[in-house]
Amino acid sequence: MKIKQVAMIVSGVGGVMALTVAFMLWREIQSFRKAERDLTAGEKNLATYYRMDPFPSNENVTRERENLDKLETWRKTLVAELRKGGIRTPETTAARFSQMLFEKRAALIKLAENSGTSLVGGDKFAFGFEEYATGHVPAPEDVPRLTEQLLVTEILSRMLFEENVKSVVRIGREKADGEVRRRERQRPQAATAPVPTDSPGSTVDDLREKTRYVLEFTAREQAVMRFLNQVAAHSAFMAVARLEMETLDSDIRKPNVPGPTDPTERMKMKLHAHPRRTDRMVAGRVFENLVRVKVELDVYRFKGDA
């Protein structure tokens, strides 16, 4: 009896194992057939693509390479033309930059005096280089950018003085990243103070860089217009990013009317004795108001071979 039971158990286990193996074999066969179908479909698609002949001909490849060479030549020509009007920055050292700043600052202050332009701060006016005008020597890696900014500031300042603006309040320049980092490291901060971020970079794209300058001054309206025209006509690429103007004069002026002011008395005057129309005007475009101006300029630098 026991032998029969053992035989039945062994037979049952063997049957289950046989079914399991058969199921696994069937599943693998199905996977193999699916892979075969996918392979056949892929081969058909590949054959279809080859029949369409998507590969470029040697003539097209040669033509595209020639076109690429032309585009590169045009790009280099364009960059060379754009760089012609740029600011030429001489190679210099930190000590030489400090000497250059001293000389140009003294010359600009003298030029302002000759043109009748007052500088807020007088001979202390530093044209945006306050930290270096007091004797601080810049880091060597900042010297090329600072030298360029000094030359641009000189150009803009001379434009203002040529137009005889009444006063120059401030000249600001975009600080280089290295200057910002060093200034933040030197500045004492509380433990809970937020970590400062660097000023945004001046790179516009792979072709251009720009530096922002801020000029604040007072002048007559026509002088402002002439200054803006000088900026637009300069060989370097300069663009006005923002312009703010606020009049400092009253919009209404007293008329320049000679003779009696009483209306009854004036009615007795002879016709030829009445003042001219221009003398009777109290407002209008003939009057040139004194305005306070804040202008932000972007001066572009084009990358390329020197």
Low-pLDDT sequence parts: 188-201
Largest sheet: 5 strands, mixed
Q: In percent, how helical is the residue content?
A: 40-55%
Order of helices and strands: HHHEHHEHEHEHHE
SS content category: alpha+beta
Estimate the global geometry from the Cα principal axes: elongated
Strand order of the largest sheet: 1-2-3-5-4
Number of strands: 5
Q: What is the radius of gyration? A: 40 Å
State the separation between the terminal residues, measured CA to CA. Answer: 105 Å
Q: Bin the strand percentage.
A: 5-15%
What average pLDDT do the residues reach? Answer: 80
Count of runs of 4 or more consecutive helical residues: 9
Give an account of the 3D structure.
The protein has 306 residues and is an alpha+beta fold. It is 51% helix and 15% strand. Strands 1-2-3-5-4 form a five-stranded mixed beta sheet. Helix 3 packs parallel to helix 5. The longest helix is centred in the first third of the chain and has 51 residues. It is elongated, with a radius of gyration of 40 Å. It starts with a helix and ends with a strand. 16% of the residues are buried.
Features of the shown structure:
5-stranded mixed sheet; alpha+beta
